[in-house]
Amino acid sequence: MATVVLPSGTRKLNCREAAFGGQSACRRGSSVPTASAFRRCSQKDISWSLGISKSLRVKPVIYSHCNTYENWRPNGVIVKCGTEDGQASFFDFAVIGSGVAGLRYALEVAKHGSVAVITKAEPHESNTNYAQGGVSAVLCSSDSVESHMRDTIVAGAYLCDEETVRVVCTEGPDRIRELIAMGASFDHGEDGNLHLAREGGHSHHRIVHAADMTGREIERALLEAVKNDPNISVFEHHFAVDLLTSEDDEGIVCHGVDTLNTETQQVVRFISKVTLLASGGAGHIYPTTTNPLVATGDGVAMAHRAEAVVSNMEFVQFHPTALADEGLPIKSTKPHENAFLITEAVRGDGGILYNLSGERFMPMYDERAELAPRDVVARSIDDQLKQSNESYVLLDISHKPREDILSHFPNIAAECLNYGLDITQQPIPVVPAAHYICGGVRAGLQGETNVRGLYVAGEVACTGLHGANRLASNSLLEALVFARRAVQPSIEHMTQSDLSACNPSQWARPVMPSPLKDRIMSDVLSLTRQVRKDLQSVMWEYVGIVRSTTRLECAEREIAELEDRWEKFLFRQGWEPTMVALEVCEMRNLFCCAKLVVSSALSRHESRGLHYTIDFPHLEESKRLPTIILPCSSVNTSWSSRLLHKVPIYQQL
Question: Which of 54, 400, 545, 550 is most buried, by CB atoms within 10 Å?
């Protein structure tokens, strides 16, 4: 599993004794073993760009299926390996994800080599496409980088990395100008300048937006540029299964990724000199989320299995205002894949929150009222709902001029009107929903990880910008800045790499479950869908907006039991550790991410930002340190924690 090094120095996950010089006391019979003794870790011990000690490495077991293969072809054509259904593609750069981070990076590195953009569904289906509010940047004379930094750090509960914050806030304006030069169209005011909105936690108007569909406009512009770039190949409906890694004297190296083409049901191996992981978040570990269906934590889980360092996973941001179905005049006839987001900009533009008794409640919780950071607003709504035993509150913008509402929020107005709600005349029923993971794969200032050749950008990364709570509209900004900063080191690594000696067959190849009978596969998928719902229910019940040690420990036990039951069923039905199917692999990743969130939350003995626990309700200055999840070896790991090309497990079942 992992080692969690926390501020309080009182808890970690399953690490060997040699790693920290302490004793290991792992539980028996649990798929999430823990140990009780470990040393403290300070920010000086583990910097954002730290490489991991070789004592924590696990040498991969290498399998060989294929005896013949063709040499690397720089134009990225698919070559046949000497196995049945054995395909490999060779590229200079492999980009996993087609949101703003992946596409912006691809456009830059394509100037220096061949690029594969690997995307789970259609290219536009990403968290970027669903981002409504905008991108924050200092673009007017009354604002300043220092002010943007201060707002970011305050919202992040002082857990942000100051150097990272300065870099992002300083370089952000240029990244916006680049988007505009590429054809992204943002709203302008009557004076001809960019119209800058204001959102919760911001002290100035600095949100660049395209009505309430900013992400969609950015995605459109980037996809258009990608389509016209001959050096970029886009692979749709390719689900990333596992990273391909090896180890040398300097540590772990990434050589690409195995994918499942979900349309042809073939496994395609991408061998690359450099891999950028930009796969988004893990919102679907919860039952109600603003994220699209593709957000199942695939990137974080893959990186964790590949021994990348992960950080700050306890900080799950719940957006305070998602559309609440219960309060709509016309109910939906079918369940939603994700909750419809009511952008932060509605409150920034004067929207007011009321409970169902008609009382405005935010001033009771924070002097900033509706403009308080998201964690404060989400907890306030949660408290109101628990006090009144209601299922939603109301967000009212109808006191603003009708033409302003319709021009600023046309997408929200149209969506609500589909359910019989006119937001120019009526308040909007809203409820918190899982929205954004502030933690992720730990990245340095150039998007580098402790795994050589592997870079990260976007929500999958933990750069230190967000700290314990993301400031509104800083996510697209971070993605743009780090996608750009990762370019130069990626090019340098690419020019120093030689794939001609890289044999694609040195890793065991994932296989389709074709030997299993249709009835068995039907049973496997049926149980997997139910287990997914059960996991989401556990996370919502025990690892939600307000937490406690008892409830987190319940979650830890129930998740371990749920995963153990699911895995045993699969392997007793004849499932092999190297078999792949979309829903099963997603479930594997959801389990991995859920365990990382719970373990990190149990380790933080204070309330800071998005992590609020009734057992430690106060913020402790001595615990103002990031949570670090280090790679460790373990005999008792579950399937979700192991690379498919490592030693098979459950052979005895």
Answer: 545
